[in-house]
Amino acid sequence: MLNLTINKKAYQVDVDPETPLLWVLRDTLGLVGTKYGCGVAQCGACTVHLNGEAVRSCVTKVSRAVGQKVVTIEGLAEKADHPVQKAWLELDVAQCGYCQSGQIMSAAVLLRENKNPTDADIDAAMAGNICRCGTYLRIREAIRLAATSQRKAGNG
Amino acid sequence: MTRRSFLKSSALAGGGLMLSFTWLSAFTPAGREKEMAPGGQWVEINGYVKITPDNVIKILNPNPEFGQNVMTSLPMMIAEELDVDWQKIVVEMGPHDNAKLGPQFTGGSNSMRMYWKPLREAGAAVRQMLRTAAAQAWAVPVEEVTTKAGMLHHAKSRKSATYGSFASQAASLPVPKGMKLKAPKDFTVVSRSKKNVEGQKIVSGKPLFGIDYQQPGMLIAMAEHPPGFGMKLKSFDATEALKMPGIKDVFRQQLYAEGFEQGGFDTRSFNELLVVVGNTTWQVMQARKKLKVQWEPAGDTKDTMGGGRGPKREVVVPGELESTDAQLRNMKDYAAKPAQQLRRDGDPETAFKNAATVIERTCHGPFLAHNCMEPMNFFAHVTDEKALLVGPLQAPGWTEPTLAKVLNLPADKIEIQMTRMGGGFGRRAYGHYLTEAALISRKVKAPVKLVYTREDDMTYGIYRPMYTATYRAALDANKDLIAFHVKGGGIPEHPIHANRFPAGAVDNYLAEGWEIPSNITIGAFRAPRSNFNAAAEQSFLDELAEAMGKDPIELRLELLKRAKENPVGKNNDYDADRYAGILKLVRDKSGWNQPENKKYSRGVAAYFCHNSYAAHVVDMVMRDGQPYVERVFSAIDCGIVINPDAATNMVQGAVVDGIGNAFYGGLTLKNGAVEQTNFYNYRLIRMHEAPQKIDVHFVQNDIDPTGLGEPPFPPVFGAVANALYKAAGKRFYQQPFGPQLNTPTAL
Amino acid sequence: MKSHPAPNTRTSSLLKIGTGLSFLIFITTAVTTVSSGENATAADRETPLRAGGARPARTAQDSTESAQAFSKVYKVLMSPRCLNCHPSGNVPLQGDDSHLHTMLPQRGVDGKGVYAMKCGNCHQATNTPGRHTPPGNPEWHLPPANMKMVFQGRTPNQLAKQLVDPKQNGRKSMKELLAHADDTLVLAGWHPGEGRTLPPMSHAEFKKAWTTWLEKGAVAPKP
Fold it and tell me: Which residue intervals define the domain 2Fe-2S ferredoxin-type in the entry (chain A) (predicted)?
């Protein structure tokens, strides 16, 4: 039994400790907002926060997460109203939407660490997340919008 | 629906500890409807509209959503005539029911076009039925009953009621036909940007996609396919794999019985797979590594084609283990041989003989993989009596008959539920993975989700074909264009659309095609053929303009003027005015002739396919020694734009996708095996490679809407090729361009 | 060779500065010795260095052996397993062809990446199984921004000088330099994960060459 804390909830799971966190989230716990895209940390669809860092859960063994703090897209904000999520909706970023939870999780780390990112900062933070629909321009714009609203809300 | 309903909590240590997990399907319509209609039962007025007595109005979207916005924009058409408050309606994916909901096919950029009239009529009919019901109850003439945002009013008697209060009565009335529909000037929903109705679910990670689907007792299946085209399964030893934790079974699974008549969308690359079934995805992945499998060359095989799509016929699938080098040599040989004539105007041979100048160029495009972000997958629960299938699929209406035959079940015992798709691009029109899932479920007698890994997905096949085209143009002594010749070929199909521009604009014209049989499977890919032609032909037109001493936009406009005023030949497959319209619009919006834009390496291209017109001006700069598309101007004519902001998003995405594929897309083969297996060697465009700005402009007109999924994509390749010519000082004829460029060694 | 671990905390940075100061003094002494005692022929052929605590080459034989040893060291350092994390820019390299890391992770101040693109987000404590998966090490990082220790594009002469230049090597003492052959990231080069080529010699051979080079005078091959 492994003890996990995901989205502030405690879980006990009986899985091989070598299992990637991604499959524990999806198959064992039903937290399917975190997506499988490549399995080798190329596409970023599986990005979750492990102690605040945007780890790729497809190559992160669940053992690394034991006793640590995991946040998935489902828990990014209790009411799904994180400034990044709101900006994504405001600009209607998604097309197919499959990669977007990973994009959002990456963007949230960027905005936590840099309240006023330049375009170069945005590219540097987001180059690990692939969007086959090509929504990159809207993602950039949404990150700028989220940064602005975050600053206006006094969180900058 | 809350996460709570999926989790059974246990009161162990500290309260909030979750021990076991059960999934109550997020996709079960009954469960969802209960939540969405808390105040009463749905009353179905017609196939598309359901209303509760307390006036919750639900619109069903008929067509599967893969990111092209149909889930929002098709219901907008119904809402336009139904007269409802868009903010209050509920939109839901409809069931697979072609009788009620039409063709339900996502592909060919056809959704808007196919459903434009039927959906508005459906909305208008429901509104009329509600008005009639109210008029009968109020004993007033129906003409005096008006509607506003889900309410019925009778001004004279000051009576008002909700749609919901008359839903039952309306449902019992006959459905009126031949409704008079609104003129575009009266639209209040259509042509007004509406947000994606599933946006909130997407950003909060709700289980929307096929791969997210789970059921209690569901097993996971994966399949080994042969390591190369032309190979088949010889033997296997699953002893070690079966010892792995959670593994239930390992077995051979044949897809089609011998002689099975395949329709056009029954393409499958391998007829027999080695299936591993287990409890979880990771367990199955681990067990696959323990399989000992022997594969062998399949030799030439026979497929039976027909299945209601063309006459029954036998086709030989060559058994050769193909390699890209040999394919290229083979294409060169074929290109030199006589080919099938597809169109001839005038006397092209004589014109070329008499020409002062002949320009000849050959372009090449590789196989392309779709690489939908959500790999192929499908849920199936098949018993002897019935089949439930849930997952991502573009063409349920074509897959269901195949499934019925393969399972030997009547179609009415098969239920296909369509989930949101993590991309499609044509790939999910081929439902072999659904049929595979169904057969696996029947074999293991359990609900099963078949999941392809990225590697399975990328190497399975059904690619954009490999193409070559040679373009020739004859100029007379005045540098006027007197003849045009295109000869194109492909593995295994040629790319030529013989009646497209510049056919009709040149006196002497010849189009020819040739094809090389192959075992590499191919299929629709975001405007297949067009996406190659628009690169090759639009790049060639650019060279032609240069040779003729003309501005590339002016040359195209001159040719289109000719095609309009004095067209050559028949069946010219484009409207010269609309074609010219997008070129003029993109010229004006991009400031094509403005001196301040001279700093950019600019490339233009325009193309017509799938009933819509698209032109792009690409502005390239050198950045870190690499060509980079900094901004793009796009002009589109797709008639009435249903959902402008979403349409803009689609065009921007197509531009980014086009740039990515032009620079990086391509598959190569060695001895039948695909050499690219995941994103480390099949490169997709990333954020830092995407332009800073893509300005999208739509031609404003009242023409019935046509599609947008495909049309903006093909001309991106041509515009990139033309800009690259200026940026790099030389022209590139081979896609992808990226590997031929000097890449920086440090950043 | 991978870089040595970047300073994690303010405390460790301060400690390093302290160490650096102590052997700066030592170097000054060494310079005097070298200038007076050097063999003219050897000086002609190779450039002896003044590594932190490095004893200068005492004889032409030492000098030759040191330079020869470095040519071995250089082969290892310029192999993709070492070179890829010692780029001339701020983006690491990938693969046996040392192409730019596809998703352009940035060095960052501490060499551990930036924002959502920190090394440890993909590179785990151990190699991820399978081909083309992220190799792993608990310390995975680039040299930090204040000590980039670039290998890419360096000639043997330049690289030898740079390795022992206290201003460029984090002010390492001779002892620290010698010990660096067994640094966890250096060793990681010989456990590169499935499908990656190894450095051109065994770690033992490399360590021997490294030690010889340093102990025989840290001679830089002639430019």
Answer: 1-76
